[in-house]
Design goal:
The chain contains nine helices and two strands. It has 181 residues and is an all-alpha fold. It has one domain: Hypothetical protein af1432. It has a two-stranded antiparallel ribbon. β1 and β2 form a beta hairpin. The longest helix is centred in the first third of the chain and has 24 residues. The protein is globular, with a radius of gyration of 15 Å. The protein starts with a helix and ends with a helix.
Length: 181
């Protein structure tokens, strides 16, 4: 799979392409580092890197002008849009990573209680690779002024705390799972 060519197809504007590729490359590098540090666990590194590079492909169809994207969809939908794109491109496993990478994952209660414009279904990472991409993504912003700057664990906790203690708890579990403490 030529991941860069696929991203170029959906981000033809050089500005948005630079932001998405820059962010996704940082996420992929961190995901690979996390995976390589796991002892006694097999991780499909090729899939992990591809999925990390493609996890935000759905941003291309959202109204995210800060990232050079001028679509009509709300930004929160970029995960399910990415799933649709990658399903259509013939990459169903990569597509699931797109859908399941928002925050530490979304559940039906999140969708209902927050009134999110999303399908009422569980969209939380299930596989090890999905969890690793989701975890790595928490450390990097797509904000052009912060692109490439890694957040601290405390910054990530603080960001997640806005969505409740359960989300912070999931992150804490991942810190342990990925030997990150």
């Amino acid at each position: 799979m030529n991941v860069v060519a696929l991203l170029e197809k959906y981000f033809p504007d050089p500005y948005s392409f630079k932001i998405i590729l820059g962010h996704s490359r940082k996420v992929a590098d961190k995901a690979l580092l996390v995976a390589r540090n796991l002892q006694g666990t097999e991780v499909d590194l090729t899939f992990l890197e591809e999925a990390a590079l493609l996890h935000d492909i759905g941003v291309c169809r959202t109204a995210a002008p800060k990232f050079g994207c001028h679509g009509s969809e709300p930004y929160i939908r970029h995960g399910i849009i990415g799933r649709d794109i990658l399903d259509q491109e013939g990459y169903p496993h990569h597509a699931l990573v797109c859908e399941r990478h928002i925050g530490v994952g979304l559940n039906i209660d999140d969708v209902r209680s927050q009134g999110l414009p999303l399908p009422e279904r569980a969209m939380a990472p299930l596989s090890l690779e999905e969890r690793i991409v989701c975890f790595a993504d928490l450390f990097y912003s797509k904000n052009p002024e912060k692109l490439g700057r890694e957040k601290t664990i405390e910054n990530v906790r603080s960001d997640l705390a806005k969505f409740g203690g359960q989300k912070v708890g999931i992150f804490k579990d991942w810190l342990k799972e990925f030997n990150y403490l």
